[in-house]
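[Solved] Which block belongs to which protein?

Original post:
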Amino acid sequence: MGLLHGSTRKSPGNSAFDAGSLQGMAHSEQGVLEVRQAQPDDVDALAELGMEIQQLHAQGRPDVFREANLSALREFFESQFTLEKHALIAIVGQEPIGYLLAEHIQREGNAFNHESSILDIHHVAVAASARRRGRQGT
């Protein structure tokens, strides 16, 4: 599973964010890939996917990252279902293969800055079994 940190900024004055605009379906050799907004029923799948990446982080940087703990990951993912936070899950067939966690941050304008609407992407994870299956040259 891979992890990416970053953010996406929408233009000033455009503060609306619709998580549904990130959802979709695509066809691949492995079947139909569905990306949809995660639901509370998906917490176990999200936590299982999170275990792999957390284990990699803890092995690589034990001074920064905690050991993977399925119960703690379930609790964390349960906390992601708020108006400001967005969790998307990628599924092929019945198998969850990845997720994206993001937070919508709106800031009012002030004497220094224009108002802004930022989608801060915290995690992008893809199961090892689903990596490197994209189509090159398309």
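(Second protein starts here: sequence line, then its structure tokens.)
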Amino acid sequence: MHVGEDWAQDLVGLDRAVEDVGEVLERRLVGIPLSLDVIDLGTDPPHVEFALTEEGRSLAPVLQALYDWGTARAERTGAAITA
């Protein structure tokens, strides 16, 4: 077996592992009630708006803490923040 063949097999294995992780995450996330409320505005053509549920809004402090941490880290390390 050549080194290249081993590398290819490793990549196939990694690809399968990533797929498995993705499937597990998808199954787990589907049941979380953080979804959006859909607001049908009753217009023609149809128009809907989306709003976070109360459960989704409860994540705001967590997301703010992550943002604050990232901003502080970028300042400490000189890392660029890009959109």
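Accepted answer:
You had them paired correctly. Confirming on the second one: Residues 41 and 80 are 41 Å apart (CA to CA).
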